[in-house]
Amino acid sequence: MIISIINTMTATDAIRRTEPQAPGWLSSRAAHISAIFLWLLSLALFRHPLSSLVSLSFHDERSSHILLIPLISACLIYLRRKRVFCASRYCLSIGIPLFLIAVALWYVLRIPLSSLSPTDRLSAVAFFIVLAWIAVFVLCYGTTAFKAAAFPLLFLLLMIPLPAVVAEHAVSALQKGSAETCYALFRLIGVPFIRHGFRFSLPGVDIEIAEQCSGIHSGLSLFIAGLLAEHVLLQDTWKKACFILCIFPIAIFKNAVRIVTIAWLGIHVNPDFFHGPLHRQGGVPFSLLALGLMALLLWLLRHSSAYSKTPDGNLAG
Asked: Which of 15, 57, 190, 290 could form a disulfide with 66 if both were Cys (CB 3.0 to 4.6 A apart)?
C-alpha cells in the first residue's frame, strides 16, 4: 500500500514536469489527502505507544499537556495555512527516508528499549512518533512548507514525556530555587523561621518544600504558554531568548509566593489554610500572578525598540 502511494506521488511529479500545471486547489487537495492517509497509517503503526501516551496524560500531572500539543500545533498550521501551503509540493527524497527511519527505529529498538523504565521508554517512542509526523509533512508538502511551519512542527516535541533524569533535575532545581526565594520572602515580611535545607520551622508549624510542591506542573504550563506568546508577539531572536529564559525564575517566584502566602495565612489567620483548598487546589490566583509578570515582560520587550539608538546615535522615540 505504501509503495502504491509512493508510485502515485512519483507519477504525479512526472506529470507536473510534462503537462500543464494543475490548478492550485487540486494539487493541494491531493497533498492533504496523502498527508491524512499517511498520518492515519502512523496512528495504526504506533497505536500501542500512543495509547500509553494518552493514559500517561491522564494519570501524570507532569504529562497532562501531551494531548493538547498536537491540537495546538494543528491550529497554528491552520492559522498560517496560506503561507505554509502556498508553494507546497511532494518531497520524496527527504520525506520517505525520514519516515522509514522513524518506523525502523521503533521496530528495531523495541527490545533494547524494554530495559528502560516505562516513562523513559515512552519518551523514546514519542520522539519516533514526532519524527514520523514531521516526515509525513515534508513528504507531502516539501521543505519550503516545512520552513514556514517549523515552529508548530517542532512544537510537537513537547509531546515527549520528560525522561526520568531530566524530570529529577528539573524538580531539584525548582525545589532549590523555591527554597531560596521563600527564604528571602520570609525575611522580607518579617516571619521568624529556622531553615534546614528544604524545611522551614515557623511559629507553631514546620513546612517542607517537597517534590510535589516544586511547581513542575505549573512550570511546564508557563513554559508552553511562553513559547506560544513569544512566537506570536516577538520578532527579534534575542528578545525571544530573553523571554524564554525569564520563564524559569518567574515560575520559581510564583511557587515561592504561593508557599509563603499559605504559610502566612496558616500562622496569622487560620491553621486550616495549611490543608485547605488554597493549598491543594488554589493555584489559579498565583498562576495569574505569573501570567501577569510574563505579560509585563512581553510588553517591555515589545516596546524596548522605541528606546533603542538610531544609526546616527540618537535615541529613537
From this structure: 57
